[in-house]
Amino acid sequence: MNKLHEILQKKFGHENFRDGQQEIIEQIIEGKDVVAILPTGMGKSLLYQLPAYLMKGTVIIVSPLLSLMQDQVEQLKLLGEKRVIAINSFLSFQEREMAFRHLADFKFIFTSPEMLQNEQFNRALRELSIAYVVADEAHCISQWGFDFRPDYLRISGWIHSLKAVNVLALTATATSEVVKDIKETLRMTKPFEYIHSLDRPAIAYEIVEVENQQEKMKWILGRVISTEGPGIIYTQSRKKTEVYATMLREQGISVAYYHAKMEQSDRILIQQQFQQGQLDWICATNAFGMGIHKDNIRQIIHDHIPTSVAGYMQEVGRAARDGNQAIASLLYTSSDVEQTFYVAMQDFPEEQDIHFAYQQEYSEVEQAETTSRILAYWKEQLNEQETIQLFKQIKQKKWQDIHSFYLMIRNDSCLREQLLHYFDQALIERPHHCCSKCKLNVSSILRNRTDEKNRQDEMNWIDRLNILLPS
Question: What is the spatial distance between Cα 84 and Cα 46, in angstroms, rounded to a whole number?
Fold first, then answer.
């Protein structure tokens, strides 16, 4: 038995590696930069955890969300690893000061792109022997860095300050364009690339066009009340997450809502309750789901057109991690394209915002925090006209992404084939339950709920929706 398999069995309790895992780990140990694209549930965390036990030094993991960091820390602790910490806003001032003084005691340090801009933290990091750096959920560099978290783009300078440290970039979805952004931002040198097929045969795709928003909500509520989960309902509106949860709870569904404006401690609690089976359904914005360790999610429901194919694949990919059949349902109306674009553009700076920022009049104008943060970064990088042109291009790309997805769900071609084609991949074998364009038999996939609540007379959902969502 070689050393890799010995650690795999003794430390992680697995007999064999999954496809690509050993190959990737060997490249990391050899000191190479690596880009690894593997679907959700393929064991990406093992790729940065196992090599650490064969290499000297500390592993720095750059993670996008506080809840994701905390979950990853807990997962390592369950494996018996005590030398792990998350450096983030959860720490009090005293805890952070103590952590900075004792960073060398930790084997795994999780942190955020924003925290990497803290000079005191950086000084402490420069004193360490760093084995390698991990960019977890690396697609966020491209998808979020240009949009609302410019500190992702500042990672480039931080990587450069570390000098000769190799980098591992992990994600479940990335186009060739996103991979290019990842390589450039992380200053990778001829990285080894491993790209697994993104097809998830156990997930069937259902597309449903409805007349209006009330019909959409009625359909979703009927589906959840009559069929078994666990599941996630994704919506663009924070208010709708609460409305869905309220109505479902009244019908005996174990459910909670989740969005970015909630207290972080509440979000982590809800995530843990869902993972542990105390909740059957989550009604959420796209703030929920990244890093969720729940194998038996049977349904993903979208009540809108997502802003990108990559984002959609990330969200539906949270189902069927156990390999058993699941279904991803997307409901839309003819006006959803414009609504999705409007939501995507809410915090984007207009030309007037950019002009004010460069004329140093920005402080006199009240703007969204996100807009201010974006412009503060680009003002350091580009002149006014270059920034105006950049955001014109970003907006155009956003519209193209949304419209492309709309065309996918509207045409008659197999949705699974189109989704894979978007990532320059081909469908090797069509599963029995493919998509609604391939004559999908939904009733043979979903199990009916049979509790007492389900047998009661249905209420008038339209009247209830008019009360909860007045025009």
Answer: 15
